[in-house]
Write a structure and sequence with these properties.
- The structure holds two protein chains of two kinds.
- Chain A is about 40% helix and about 15% strand.
- In chain A, helix 2 links the parallel strand 2 and strand 3.
- Chain B contains four helices and nine strands, in the order E-H-E-E-H-E-E-H-E-E-H-E-E.
- The chains are: A alpha/beta, B alpha+beta.
- The interface between A and B is medium-sized, with 18 and 20 residues.
Amino acid sequence: MREDLNGAQVVLKALADQGVECVFGYPGGAVLPIYDELFQQDDIRHILVRHEQGATHAAEGYARSTGKVGVVLVTSGPGATNAVTGLTDALMDSIPLVCITGQVPTALIGNDAFQECDTVGITRPCTKHNWLVRDPDDLARVIHEAFYVARTGRPGPVVVDIPKDVQFAPASYIGPKNIQHKTYRPKLKGDQPAIREAVELLASAKKPVIYTGGGVINSGPAASQLLRELVRLTGYPITSTLMGLGAYPASGAQWLGMLGMHGTYEANLAMHDCDVMLCVGARFDDRITGRLDAFSPNSKKIHIDIDPSSINKNVRVDVPIVGDVAHVLEDMVRLWRSSSATPDKAALKRWWEEIDGWRGRDCLRYRQSDSVIMPQYAIERLWELTKDKDVYITTEVGQHQMWAAQFFHFEEPNRWMTSGGLGTMGYGLPATIGVQLAHPDALVVDIAGDASVLMTMQEISTAVQYRLPVKIFILNNQYMGMVRQWQQLLHGNRLSESYMDSLPDFVKLAEAYGAVGMRAEKPDELDDAIREMIAVDRPVLFDCRVAALANCFPMIPSGKAHNEILLADDASDEDIESAIDEEGRVLV
Amino acid sequence: MLHRPDALETHTLSVLVDNEPGVLARVIGLFSGRGYNIDSLTVSEVSHEAHLSRITIVTTGVPMVIEQIKSQLERLVPVHRVNDLTAGGKPVERELALVKVAGSGDARVEALRLADAYRANVIDATTEHFVFEITGRTNKIEQFIAIMQPLGLVEVSRTGVAAVQRGPEGL
């Protein structure tokens, strides 16, 4: 098998054999041999970012929108440490990434060499696994194993740290087909008796709810199809976490909207009052459960997850099923079809009536304004004007993210890229770059906030360089809106450091980067501006001036139960009134 | 085994891992990062040919946390197997300690007499000190150390717990 290759050539060959189309990266001293090989080949496209964090988020966007593994290439030291945020983000949201880092030559490791850091030490807790390759003959095997570990089971990021001398050294190559991992073999097929028990429990439910998460998306398109089938067969209501949006279409009659801290009233109350809960590929995160000891107190819980450590971590469940969502749902659909048990139609009818009562609260209602663009309205219009297009949405983190989840309605999986677990401000702009590369003809929009977007603003330069017509739709309220909202609700409205004094002129900033800048300030100019943004075939920074002090409701305050959810009309009128009065002053 | 959901339990876990750089750091990082307790930890290669090491961890937590610890350990890529020795009944557990005691006169005689009662061996001595080697379960070692305290205890070095399941089956 020995071929006449060096380490850097082995890296490129392994990537090509893994089907990698593009790599997001930034060169530096310790990866120059790999960059030299990149230069001399045409199989793999390299996208030069402006900061390594941008490379990781772009790779996440690529991975999340395609189901493939995203690949990052950075240098040693600061290159690696700058990638840490994105690696952690990918770990929290189960996104498959392979991050190749350069390292100082093996002889210098541990000597505090220039641009040296303990990359495997630093990234150990923020990756699924990592490797330092000291022997050139291990390189091909490790890279293939890295792809296998990243995409298999619960997906996640991995790091392969390659010292510079290993990149230069002669190295043997083996192809991916010859690799079998020694230990890592996640269980895909669910335990049959447990699945049977789950189906029986589901059929006996009087107040059922199906609660799904990012695991459905990660399991692939078949999982979403099977989920839709199960929901249709059972007639049960369905809600989803932030990460799972799109697995079930938002236009479906059984859709309750997102659940959790900023989820809908009906979704959260259905979770609280249900008697049987089917959790599919979600992990009972604290944004979902609220106060743990008051979480869905009267329900039997079924939990499907490929990661055994997600089961019984926060919430004790009655029927755990370890396996891949698509595999388990396939069995469940088959068993449901062949089962003689029939659901209690009368009870279900009463349950749906109860849910319809909650729906009647119209929990997402907000106070419309003629003079100022409400952020919710901006997203509603964006959705209305793009819903017939091939559209992908990314977000930053904060109020705009929650409003996007509430008001932008997703019909398909893999269309929604957001930082859920880690909550990384600055995720959305670089993520659009990865998404747009994977889907060149699609409309890719980052619903952004003015504070978040500045954290990785430099990546607009990347979009310009590669002529990626991404649309950065900034809901500009001049605040770190979610921080301000919490300060208002919890800290006597003392707005400590949450006002963005001296924001840049986003229109001029766009022009400085060679992108297109646009602005909308009044509700009546919004539609035309959005249409224009869509029509422009270049990267756009859209400065959408919105009401400064709008709050994101519904909200389950921290430490409260689902049925203590706060709606916009419950929040003190005085707060909301004074908030609207202040708009003019802040917007100027 | 009956579990009280809120009662602390002590479990001895045997973890078979690839003997590769960083594997112990992964295990320790998991415990510190997630706030689990380590009462004792030992690690040594058990198969040179297969590059396998065995880590024995004694940990304390409520049953839900113990289950979490096992699942989290199993999730680590270089981990072959996690065996909860305590779940299958009381395992055989031994620890070795080297205990240095210095003194003269009655205290010295008493130390030697007690060491004999505990079946500790003298492995180094001068007219001013003994080094005892004692093997046993953790509580026996702790008792021995406690009674040596007033008799001139200088220092202690312990190996931590090694453990296997009772009966013919292996890990």
